[in-house]
Design goal:
Tetracycline Repressor, domain 2, Arc Repressor Mutant, subunit A, 189 residues
Length: 189
């Protein structure tokens, strides 16, 4: 078996995400990832000292990817409600495409001494809250609104990935609807 090839860290993360999506977090082990990639069982330890370090890195990568998608949606143009709807749809889309990764991202079992997971999570949240920084924000308490919106979107995505939504309710329609309803009830007067 080879000790190292190419960019092993990136390959370990990519393979870990595949295993996570197909078989769940319980199926992840550094030894099995090494075997899958054809490297020695000790090779992954150069990048991840243990399984939790791998999960932390997956969470950071997940938040970074979600953040990039949210940033693109937030700058899509249009008025505040249009941008907020795009961000909501983007969040639900990411969450329903990567439910196992999202679960790892929000697991809060991190041991990252540098707090990279928390920093990546906060950077994601800052994109949503950044929408409220403009002059066209019609919301009285932006931070509270953002938390409520995120909770609602996360719930929609969670129900969708568990096939627990009634067939007549598509996650995108629900996400757009929750934005409109929350805005209507949160207008700053």
């Amino acid at each position: 078996m080879a000790y190292h090839h190419g960019n092993l860290r990136a390959e370990l993360l990519a393979r870990a995400e595949t295993v996570l999506a197909e078989d769940g977090v319980g199926a992840l082990s550094l030894r099995s990832l090494a075997r899958d990639l054809g490297v020695s069982h000790a090779a992954p330890s150069r990048h991840f000292p243990d399984r939790q370090a791998l999960l932390d890195a997956l969470a950071v990568e997940g938040f970074e990817r979600l953040g990039a998608e949210l940033e693109k949606a937030a700058s899509s143009g249009g008025g505040f409600e249009d941008r907020l709807r795009e961000v909501a749809l983007t969040y639900v889309g990411f969450a329903t495409r990567h439910p196992a990764l999202l679960e790892v991202m929000y697991a809060r079992k991190y041991r990252d001494p540098e707090d990279r997971v928390r920093a990546a999570s906060e950077a994601c949240a800052a994109i949503l809250l950044g929408l409220f920084a403009g002059g066209d924000t019609p919301v009285a308490d932006p931070e509270r609104f953002g938390v409520i919106l995120l909770a609602a979107l996360h719930g929609i995505a969670s129900l969708a990935t568990r096939n627990a939504l009634p067939p007549a309710h598509h996650p995108d329609e629900l996400a757009a609807d929750i934005v409109q309803r929350l805005l209507r009830g949160s207008r700053a007067d």
